[in-house]
Amino acid sequence: MRKHGFILLTILLSVQFTFAQGTLPHALTSQEKQLIGNYRSPVVETAYQTPPPNPVRTMAEWEELSGLMITWADYYHILKEIVRYAQEECRVYIVCSDSNQVKAYLLSNDVPINNITFLIEDYNSIWCRDYGPFSIYEEGTDSLFFTDWIYNRPRPDDDVLPAAMANAYNVDLYQMTQPPYDLTATGGNFMTDGLGTGFSSKLILEENPDHTEAEIDDIMYQFMGIDRYIKFETLPYDDIHHIDMHMKLLDEETILVGEYPEGVADGPQIEANLQYLLDNYQTCYGRDWQVVRIPMPPDKYGKYPDEGGAYRTYTNSVFVNKTVIIPTYEEKYDTTAFRIYREALPGYRIVGIPCDDIISLNGAIHCITHELGARNPIFIAHAKIRSATETDASYQVAAVIRTSAGIDSALTYWTTDTTSGFTALKMTYTNNDSFVAQIPAQPAGSEVFYYLTAFASNGKVTSKPLVGARGAWKFTVEGTSEIAARDAARPQSFSILSVYPNPFNEQAVCKFSLPKSSEVNFTLYSIDGRKVKEIGTHYFNAGQQQIRIHGQNLSSGIYLLRVSGQGFSTYRKLVLIK
């Protein structure tokens, strides 16, 4: 990387404002609200202001890390515990003003300082998730770069910390800060599957009024390789509108989603957003999402956010290689959260840090950490085997495996009894970094456990899942009688089961039964037969399914919902009252 040394150009502010290190909240202060309209992101002299020259891929959070960033600005009792756990997995980069003071604090609390790098830099706040750099790889796994955007707070010291991290990490920095690539965003409102799909709330649209949605999508593609950008409606009671406050990707096809009691706080909008995802998008492997629900608990007074309670959440966690650090609050709620995480992520070390005092600022563990990718990672993409039958000759394990150093070999380890160990199968290279193995057929009722391990030419070894045998995937071999019985529950013809509520105000849910997996079209007509709204065509699995009908931009009145597919077409009357 070019020699570090950046110049902050004049920051155009309407009034004078002095930033106190470490004291700024997650949300905008009253003074910052006056400044934000005239804020201009500092220009970093050593950063590139144009997109990377070759296609890039943004790292997913569960991939291998070499470092974890924190800013030693406040809430030291929480930060020290992050350091305690994280330094066992990777190097911890601590942005601070006095490293000796930090060392003394850590040692006095029995936290080792053996795997830490201190960066003596100016800063404004603790919320490094929002302003820290994202790790991107050229051509998927080649050169590691950092990229960042305009921080959506008028905090210039925070805004330039990605440059300091790039210098410490010795990588190039690509910034989305200057026209036509200027993008205002925040890390807590972004997540990715590592394969080109990105997620945000529509805050990303609201904070970039000078860009169309297509322009925003293009910037994200050029700088971060995001070619499918899914955006959700913002939540009424989440003041900062960051999706990490209520959802988290656990892998390419599994999403952890917070759940309130029915009708409470942001529960209705979370459910609508989840249904929007399930109705309109499939995973990067073209399959239905696997959804894990986790409670959103009330605060210590029993109040939820709509009652003025703190925004307690368990989704605001962070992967640090084979450890996952989650926020905790009270044992009666934490016990359930630990169980859910351990079931969803077997083999990972799940540890908790009390966050009751910081959550009142709408932030927890994820908000005050930022992952830094590994150099020359081994990238493994694999669609997990979800089901198998006793009539299958074998169970194919297919994966794309690549690294800049080249892959020497890859193995699939499998077993039906984890206490007896695993059998290794050599994976055969086919083409385009693809590898295949065949797990032998097993009797009906067998549980098959398996995981993948790849060996690079430079000696590096990586498994997927990262924890290897401890977190092996599992599928069950179904018998033909079980399959026949399951198919006989299935409906023999299409039918609409219910549309509720009806009359409706904002949205109604249409529940229906489908005899076989197929595409279904939904169209809304006026009572006199004019097409009013093309809701869309979606693919559904056989069985009972549902879709939400939204009434935005429609006038009160009587409508006809037409539902059609292969071999059927039916109508149901809907009444919209606003």
From TrEMBL:
Gene Ontology biological process terms in this record: putrescine biosynthetic process
Record keywords, A-Z: Hydrolase, Signal
Organism domain of life: Bacteria
Protein's UniProt keywords contain Signal: yes
Signal peptide segment: 1-20
GO MF annotation, one: protein-arginine deiminase activity
Domain Secretion system C-terminal sorting, first and last residues per copy: 499-575
Protein name per UniProt: Por secretion system C-terminal sorting domain-containing protein
Phylogenetic lineage: Bacteria, Pseudomonadati, Calditrichota, Calditrichia, Calditrichales
